[in-house]
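Dear U.,

For the methods section draft, I wanted the exact inputs and outputs in one place so we can describe them consistently. I've listed the two proteins in the order they'll appear in the manuscript figures. Please don't edit the token lines directly; just add comments below if something needs changing.

First protein:
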Amino acid sequence: MNASEFMIRKARVEDAEALLAIYKPYVEKTAITFEYTVPTLVEFRGRIKKTLKKYPYIVVEKNGKIYGYAYTGEFKARAAYGWSVETSIYVDLECRHEGLGKMLYGAIEDLSRQQNVLNLNACIAYPRREDEHLTKNSVGFHAHLGYKKVGTFHKCAYKFGTWYDMVWMEKMLGRHNAKPMPIIPYAEL
């Protein structure tokens, strides 16, 4: 697979069915997400719509077929956290390790900089011991992209009969000045 043949574009609510098809195996077969139940199509559409009001939600596609998506969202609800976001990324399980994740995160970083976001935070499921539901690959992926580990919550999530840890990683996008630029909602870019 040649990553240069793919394009990144803004997600649309109409993409929900394709995005949910990518997400569904993560819910049913992995501990990468801690959801137990696959969201309904209506719920998933609502998630996309809500995110796009303030944050980027993008897809990577080739010839009209979506192979992955990424988005950012609120890190914490308090106003002082406004310059920090949480990142999420899902690539078709059959297309991982092909450069699509790196493309998506590169675009998310660019869009976040345009919004004046300074901190990208990734909440990552982490196994004490790798198993058929979860490996340590996501931490390696984020580290490769310049994220630094900042904390671990131990045995905080239970799925598939196993207790998993959660790791937080962060990447700084800019300088933290005394008077930061205001955050620009994604819809206004």
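Second protein (the one for the lower panel):
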Amino acid sequence: MNRQTADLRAPAKPRLSSAAPTFLVDDVGKTARWYETNLGFTVSPFPKNEPYVYASLQRDGVELMLLRMEGYQKPAVSRPGRNWDAYIRMEGVHPFYEAVRQRLPIRQELVKRPYGDREFEICDPNGYVLVFSE
């Protein structure tokens, strides 16, 4: 058996390539527009017309998903330490922070953590906490 044949028969090694936090929301359209307007995400909703049941939000290789659950309100979570729903790693966190803070309330100001990352936090309109870090 030649090497080419052996490569075709060998099972591929599984490799994870990404993850997309998925948020339950009452109004997918309203939430998607907030992400588009305030954070520069591109919105791909389903179906084509509102009320949407799903939307993929994408920016620079980051994806968040919204799923409609009529009447849903995110429960308040209280636990020691941070209460994060999505931790987004990025480049250029300082200029992004400056732009975001002109439009939105900041939950946690830009700060350098003991582990070396610079982070800031915001809440979306449904109470999901997003951390932007470099």
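Candidate sentences for the figure legend, describing the second protein: The domain at 19-73+81-133 is CATH 3.10.180.10 (2,3-Dihydroxybiphenyl 1,2-Dioxygenase; domain 1). The radius of gyration is 19 Å.

Thanks,
Y.
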